[in-house]
Every structure is written in C-alpha cells, then in structure tokens.
Amino acid sequence: MDEYRSNILKKSNAEINRLQLLSVFFDEEIIYKIFLRTQVIHQLFVKNDDLEIEKLDLFHLQFTDSVIALLRKIKKSNEKNVALIYDEIDLNEALIDKMAETLNDKNSFVQDKQKQSLKINQSLRRLYDNLSDLSTDFPFSKNINVFSAKYANEYYFDLTSDQLAKLINFEGKNVYSNAYATIERKLMGRLCKFDFRTEFHLGLKSGELIVEIYKFLDNKTFYLFFPGRSLFLLCDLSVFKDIDATNTLSEREKIVQELAYKNDKLKSNAAVLKTAIAKEVQDLLESSYQKISDISFLNHLNNFDVQSNILKEMLKTDLF
What we know:
Layout: H1 3-26, H2 29-47, H3 53-102, H4 106-133, H5 146-155, E1 157-158, H6 161-167, E2 175-177, E3 182-184, H7 185-193, E4 198-206, E5 209-216, E6 222-226, E7 231-235, H8 251-274, H9 279-293, H10 305-314
Helix pairs in contact: 1-2, 1-3, 2-9, 3-8, 3-10
C-alpha cells in the first residue's frame, strides 16, 4: 500500500473514531447507524485497492466532517445549558445548607412540646385553685410563652384574621375570669374530669398573634390557649379544616424539602438536556443516512454537495 493511500485511510480512521465517541455520547440510534455505515464505507476502500481512495477522502470532507461539526456544536450548546442548570442546583444546595444550619432540631421540638404541655397543665390546675379559693397567686408557669416564641415561625400554621376572631369569640356568661386569665366553664369542668391531662396538638399564627391548640389525652376534645388575652376556650377543629395537622414539617423544613425536590427535577432535566437533539436535526441526519446507505452512493459522490450544504447550513442556525 502506497503512503498516500495509507495516510488517507489513517485520516479516515481518525474521523470514524471521532464519530464513534459522539455516537456514544448522544446514545442516539441514527448517529450510531451513521457511524456503522461510515465504517462499512471505510472497509470498502480497505479491502478494494482498485477503488479511488480520493473518493473516501471526499466522502469524509463532504459528509463526515459536517456531521461531526454539527454534533460537536450541539454538544457544546447542550453542555452550556446544562452548566446553567447546575449553577442553579449549586445555588439551591447552598441555600439548603444555610437553612439547615438554622433549623430547630425536630427532637428538640418534640421534647419542648412535652414540656409546654406540662406547663399548661400545671398552670390550669393552679388557675382552678385560684378560682376555687379566690387566691391572688400568679397561676402561670415560668416562661410559658417561650415555646411559641421559639417555634411559631417554623412550626405554627397560618390562620386568617377571620378564623382567629371566630376561634376566640365567647360570651361572658360562659366563662370564669380573674385578674390573670379567662377560661370557659365547660372547659374547666372537663379539665377537672380528666385530671388536667392534656397535650400540645398544634400551633396557629395570624400575623404576630399566636394560638396554641391542646388535646385531652382521654378523648378527642380540643381547647385553645390564646396568650394575647390569657384565654382558654374549647374549640372546634373544623374552623381550620384545611390545615393538615399530621404535617409536622416546619416552614423552613418545607422550603428545604421543596428545594431538594426541585434539584432532583433539575438534575433529571440536565441528564436529558445533555444529549438532546432537536427534531429538525434528527430528521436531517436520518435523511443523510438514507443517502449514504444507497448502494450506488459512491458512484454519485460528486453529487453529494446538496446534502453537505444542508448540513453546513444547519451549523448556522439558532436551534442550539
């Protein structure tokens, strides 16, 4: 084999290797078919010395080079768009890390709920004693409002002003009052009946105002504590039926969860976008493949300029 022919075959092999790498990257059937067909054409010249080797060089010049250039441009454009997506992912992850540092420990919230329930039960028991013997002792446990101050922004559910007004509305004849608190008569009766055994159920907030909802351990009765007025009333949970009380995620935890979910979607989109090829390009590649698959393709190689020009024009478009 003369050196001229050998050099063209080496050059052809290099073109085929580049095309193979692109077919692996895009993992697209039509690109793999073009790669295989290009190998077949190359082997024709390897096994047939009588074929004009210049035609192989012309084939790569007119077709393979244009296909490779087009695919490389698409690859570069896709990788640029994917990089933008990962920039957004990085920003989200930085925000997740920052918010995670300020999240109250869920275990602390659970433990503090138990402590708050104990404080409320003890305060109500002392309030009962006050009302019974007309004592002037302060009934509320120390730091009883610290719990809400610590957790309201993260764990309390939002309430409209109308819902709040409906919740804390009462008639004077139905309550006991002294200098420290106001409590519904029926509620005090139930507290005595069930030995002041209640637990924190959920927290509500309307602007700066907060309401704590408690539940009797022995039945499904609920009552509220409105610190703003030191008010205790039986309450109907249907007033805020849209609230999912089983959702114990804090507001920040919800945001972190949403950001993590968004990042999962972005990563999935990035994986798809990385190897995406526009329908117009796929159709063009399919058409080109049909042309080079024609059994008489080599005989009309000099007339392949039209297909080559279409590929080159595609390089100038803004599809990618």
